[in-house]
Specification:
With about 475 residues, the chain is mainly alpha-helical. About 45% of the residues lie in helices and about 10% in strands. The two termini are about 35 Å apart. Belongs to the SusD family.
Amino acid sequence: MRYRIYTLIAAGAFVLSVQSGCKKDFLDKTPFNQVTGDKAFVDAAGAEKLLRGVYDGMYNDYHIWDFMTNGDVISDNAYAGGDNQANIQLDLFTANSTNGNVGRDWGALYSDIKNCNEVLENVPNIQDPALDANGRRDQILGEAHGIRAYMYFNLVRLFGAAPLILKTPSNSTEMQAPRATVDDIYKQIISDLEFALAHTSTTAVNKGIFTKNVANALLAKVYATMETKDWAKVNQYADATIAGGYSLFPSFDGLFLEANKNNSESIWEMQYDGYGGQHGNWMPGVIMGSGWKRFNTPSNDLVRAYDNEKDEIRKKSSLVFRNVATEGWSDDYWTKANYPFINKYRADDKSNSYMIRLADIMLLKAEAVNELSGGGWAQAKTLVDQIRKRVNLAGTSAGNQAEMRLAIEKERRLELAFEGHRWFDLLRTGRAIEVMNAQTDGAGKNLNYNVTAAKLLFPTPQTEIDRNPNLK
């Protein structure tokens, strides 16, 4: 482990945060948005550098690893594993405002937002005809708006009400912004995504670029997550995404092979090329391997869910059991002679990770049509059965709206495990407290998470409360 120093922008102020980690290659590189003087802002090349700073800024702990901790470890899909107390606190619902992951994620998301704001503030003022050739200026602005929306979507789902920073603060008052309401944050998210939808490209050199179809997919997810859901909008934007030229990859297992990066099912995907390239993915090394106890251990409940469904294909693709009896550590949940590891990230430092893929959006559409009418469950069944057919499972037995809700929830869990979605699915469906408080270990003993409504959101980091008196 080596110390890594991050310069984080939280609510417009610079905050220094030191966090231990396992790899640092990408942090050794000079960020593209660190510029000297005004030179980088005067031509098209400067605009491209600013945008590259947005994408490069996403290769931080939040997007490399915490996305899974937040989406799967906090949920019923995985235990914290390892010996990191910050992860364990999140797993056990005992985290407070001093939790290291909480502060790291707040800072990382606001740092990414800051990078987007720099593009949106500077690129409109660049006087270079080359920037307007083929609408490139609009595309750059569209991508920055879309990525800012994605960061705020993550932020509001984790923290709830939070400062809404849309430009670089120019004075101390602006640097101590109060919380915006959840509704106002969602309004800004939708506004940014609508701008992105109107200005981004339909295609890109790889699935790491923010495109119109990413905007459509995120709009579907946003309208399904807001407190007042708009299922008609979810259906509209899910349809628009599905019509974007995607198809289910024939092999579920093949989704996670290095040879199939940026495949027909991928909508938005983090791009890793190893430590010999520009971006290496250190996450696989902390969830799989020997010599020390790895993090994010698959849960007994998830394994039971695969077994109860007789879902062997997705079980074997998603997790693998190994004999680690000779390892010098202990575990509260599993026997070491048959210990589970996550299996979706097999290319080590070159493993891409999906942010959005087609199966996610198809199942989201299934939710929408099921909610739009009492008879919509039949149309939802068609979509669910397409997902199940790929892994050689019979069609769902759900026969009414209520049964279909649970069938879709289960299908999303088995399909998308360890891709960072489960906890947010439980939150948006209002099922988090019920599901988590019913969790048992391998022997059927209740895990006593004692989840309450007050524990469903991350606390605001104490460092931010100390710095900003408006964060009551």
